[in-house]
Design brief:
Blueprint: H1 28-102, H2 116-134
Length: about 140
């Protein structure tokens, strides 16, 4: 007896063959196309990223070189600055010595004027008088 045959009560059983299975549309091909497109996009992005990384690496090398040059210039300028400070200090000391050398204090003479010509003549007379006394 087949499964399609009637059973004892006269009722017919449904066979498993009678059931229709729902078929899903064939999307495997579409999925493969999508996956292929995604993979191609990833490859393109990978190439672009590699190029950008190379570019950044090149820029970084240039920046490092510039920093080295700037550091060397900075050291040179600091050395020049120190040398100039020493020169200014020596010139300042020399000026101070000259100032002390030319700064003569004379005691024993009474001067009541601020006129340079009168002061010069008074000092000249005072020096002549003092030198004559020493002779």
């Amino acid at each position: 007896m087949s499964e399609d045959s009637a059973d004892e009560g006269g009722k017919r059983k449904k066979s498993t063959k009678d059931k229709q299975t729902k078929r899903t549309p064939d999307t495997k091909h579409e999925d493969d196309d999508r996956l292929g497109k995604i993979m191609e996009m990833i490859r393109e992005l990978k190439v672009d990223l590699k190029a950008e990384i190379r570019s950044i690496g090149t820029e970084l090398k240039e920046i490092v070189q510039e920093v080295k040059i700037l550091k060397q210039e900075n050291i040179t300028l600091r050395n020049e600055n120190e040398q100039l400070k020493k020169e200014v200090y020596l010139i300042n000391e020399k000026i101070e010595k000259e100032k002390r050398k030319n700064n003569v204090i004379v005691q024993g003479i009474r001067i009541d004027t601020n006129e340079p010509d009168l002061l010069k003549e008074e000092m000249h007379q005072f020096m002549e008088n003092e030198l004559e006394e020493l002779e």
